[in-house]
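#dry-run=false #mode=assembly
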Amino acid sequence: MTSNNRPDQIEEVKNIFSAYLEKKDLRKTNERFHILEEIYSRHDHFEAESLYTDIRKKNFNISRATVYNTLELLISCDLIKKHQFGKNLAQYEKSYGYKQHDHIICVDCKKVVEFCDPRIQQIKSMMGELLNFKITHHSLNMYGVCGSCQKKREMEAASKKEVEVN
Amino acid sequence: MTSNNRPDQIEEVKNIFSAYLEKKDLRKTNERFHILEEIYSRHDHFEAESLYTDIRKKNFNISRATVYNTLELLISCDLIKKHQFGKNLAQYEKSYGYKQHDHIICVDCKKVVEFCDPRIQQIKSMMGELLNFKITHHSLNMYGVCGSCQKKREMEAASKKEVEVN
DNA sequence: ATCCCTGCAAAGGGTTTGCAGACGC
DNA sequence: GCGTCTGCAAACCCTTTGCAGGGAT
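#status=ok
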């Protein structure tokens, strides 16, 4: 969910990440914690590239390879989620402390809005049972035109008509 | 849905495509109809590349550019659907005459199973109204482990334990 | 001291684009 | 004949990989 960052949240997720790395016998490098910090000081969805460039701007010498590597780790320990909103471009969002939700994307302005519906959970467990799948996660995206883009479209259609009449 | 091809279905979709091209003042090229034919003689999901190579095998000189171009057209007139099952790789499936459905993907063997649930439609219209979106389409994918891969996992876990004991 | 993790740059894979020639209209 | 569509190849974009050096344990 679009979020206000609680000041202590970053500490919490760092502890979770730290425990995860320890459990998996992975190294606690500065780079990994810098990346986590950068992510949790952000809002909404982001792409790997903008995360990379923003970190660079702050004069941390972190490579793309490390960014991608760390994103994978953070997905594994459930601190972020990865999405594909139709394009060949992964988008990520932090997930600690936010309840499960899905997305509506405006096909005109690409705005992403979040929503929750308990029926998804029902479908998930019912279909898992029915088809004998052990379902681990899902991705539900709705695509359409948001309110303001609907208006824009109407206005454009109107002005086109105007031209035709003249 | 996984399909048996009715013999007359290819003619039907060609007519639809033809009417669409006419309406949009686009040209009816042999390439476009060849591609449509190839798609509708297939089953299940496919990727642009395999479509391209299969057409090539049949000695039609059709380029990748044309394949991608035609896929876009076929999406526009609702004769095919485009999916992204988590990877940066689009998958397509024919959609004429098949009812709306969603997908469950096995994360181990990548098998894709289809399912329908009327609640999706309800969520769609309710959320559209609630958030003032004119929703045009959606994509719902569930990810998990299918029955046979669950067994495989159990067997592997068991044999690992065996090794540890010895 | 070990060897996992890093930065860098290049490769990779899917998709898109630019251009000259071909062909539907 | 005009202008769109095509084939080809190169470019493009995001992501992954190979390698040599560096830092966590």
